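Hey, can you fold this?
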Amino acid sequence: MESLDLSRLKIMQTIETKYLGATNTKNDRIKAVNSGKSDSVLLNYDHGMTPLENHERVARALFNKLGWTGGMVGGATSTGMVWVFEHSSGSPRLDLDTQ
């Protein structure tokens, strides 16, 4: 079996957002962490927004804090959401519409 040469790939990081419920001392919050675990953002949940808008807001805050550029798309996970970069040159792509 041929091994994958990861040095040739432009590996992009992701952002994971997770809802944290209220405690006796803290309000509901959403936390965003990048896949490198080098930074995070924690914001209070805004009940005037939808759950998706809250996750987007926190992911955008971390994206901006890290100085990243480009576009990201989100998808649901069992623990919240994950945000991945849209396809860029040099990154792996899985196109499920073709065979």
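Oh, and this one too while you're at it.
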Amino acid sequence: GTGEDTYLGKVVEKYGGEYNDEIKKLVYPHCEIELTAIEDFAEKGKIDSRFADLAEIMSRSNQIWNAEAEQYVLKHFAIAE
């Protein structure tokens, strides 16, 4: 697979999420974040500033999911225990 596929596969193993290679879907079960297409982050960011932050992070990586985006989600969307 591509580098992106390898990275996402490792995320799934580490965090127990779901990864669908066909549509590149990644789910973090311990975070409260709606399933949202990367290209929709900026629009959603008009209502929730966390998505605006994610849109900015993604713009720096040519819209490819990456460790910085993952760490942001884990920190800012985590379900409070």
